Amino acid sequence: MPICSCEETINEFETLTRDAGRVQQDTLKKILELNADAEYLNHFGLNGRTDVESYKACIPLCVHSDVEPYIQRIADGDTSPLLTGKPVTSLSLSSGTTHGKPKFLPFNDELLETTLQIFQTSYAFRNREYPIGKGKALQFIYGSKQVVTEGGILATTATTNLYRRPRYKEGMKDIQSQCCSPDEVVFGPDFHQSLYCHLLCGLIYSDEVHQVFSTFAHSLVHAFQTFEEVWKDLCADIRDGVLSDKVTVPSIREAVTKILKPNPELADSIQKKCMGLSNWYGVIPALWPNAKYVYGIMTGSMEPYLKKLRHYAGHLPLISADYGASEGWVGANINPTLPPEQVTYAVLPQTGYFEFIPLEKPKGEESENSASIHYIESDPVGLTEVKIGRIYEVVITTFGGLYRYRLGDIVKVAGFHNSTPELQFICRRSLVLSINIDKNTEKDLQLAVEEAGKLLEAEKLEIVDFTSYVEKSSDPGRYVIFWELSSDASEDVLRSCANCLDLAFVDAGYMGSRKIKTIGPLELRILKKGTFQEILDHFLSLGGAVSQFKTPRFVNPLNIKVLQILNRNTTKSYFSTAYGL
């Protein structure tokens, strides 16, 4: 994408967002014309109409379970127009790690095009602030296993559906995002070997790397934690020009061997730089001196990893990638200089039809720091009708066969760019921790862990990762929080942490229930080092992709395997005494 076409992309974006209301009507019309024969639309009596009023009057709001029977028929080989006019030939697996089982979603060429539009738009704005020339991207990306359904439909993760399409590769070349590693590494069957080779290829091309990327901040942190352990092996491979015996997959070995040549100077230089770092601070700019930024999804459940990622990135800016889900895209980051904690996403009005359910906090529950609310909903409003400062749940209609689909994401309208809103991602709507009248979301859990984590900072310790569980087998039920720590902490500090966590849940339902003992003392369980790696390995063994892995912040009781891993690796347990014994 030469500079001139970056300007073209920005001009086109400006034009479309100046009249976002009209573009939305046109986009809905286009979606409904393309899919006029879809059984789903006709089941509700839309009968070929394409105007907003008829659409909202006929088609109800839906969630995944409403469309699941149609998607199952597609998976079973039914080629009649069910959700889309054209037959669906690919399915995406969502990262459904909460219930431990993935969800199928339709994927088609139109979704590929909207992906490229989003990526090109955010690239154009990014390139204006941080111009990158011809070069490569150090990308920690991983294809996942592809499964063929009973009806012969290919199902894989949304990211893999993109990576394996030539059209996507061309589009990425245009925006200077060519991966350092050959395809065989991206699509390799063994994640650990792929990660090792991503690092190796990144070092081989270290002078050409202009950006460092992974889908999620978690994958970036994991990659550099691995680098700390394997850097000497990588140096040896580069020095001798021989790939480590650890890499055993023939396709990966062959592809990487082609680009690995003996280079003692580079090996010495890497070794010297690594030895000169203090606790790996700034390892990314030290080894990739031409990198302009670190890029990936850094909002929502990825926020807890930012501190560690900043440590590795040193002075380089962290830029949060665009806002979407396996279901479809919502917005592009057009303000790349904002830190991830403040990032907003501008909705591209031509990529889908968007509605927003206004959410009101009930009177008396307005405390700002709590996400744990049962909201009062009003009727959905259109893209241009949202109001600044208000919160909403996102509803999308896509080119991929989802109609008035509730994403389950809560967003806040931070402002407008021309007539399209800029959204701030707040949290997933689903409740995480609840025993009776208490209601706590992922955001509340994150805030509680951050609060208690401050007690560890004084001890120079950090939380590697965390999750939670509701223990209902005993009466009263209680919250159980699992922590993996960077090293051992004293008993006194961990007891204080348990109390701090218990007091940090400020939801009125929780505090009231704790006082009258209808919820028992919170339990903090400390895990062996490597427990979350074991959970990741389990997720991969089910056919998941590491690029989609999100540590489950709440473990569902049905997810027996993950609970077994957590319980087996628990080394110590501390009960809160914050509300008395």
From TrEMBL:
Keyword line = Ligase
Question: What InterPro entries does this protein's entry cite?
Answer: GH3, GH3_C, GH3_M
Specify the superkingdom: Eukaryota
Cite the GH3 middle domain residue spans from the record.
Answer: 345-428
Q: Where's the GH3 C-terminal domain?
A: 443-556
Has keyword Transmembrane? no
The protein, known as: Jasmonic acid-amido synthetase JAR1
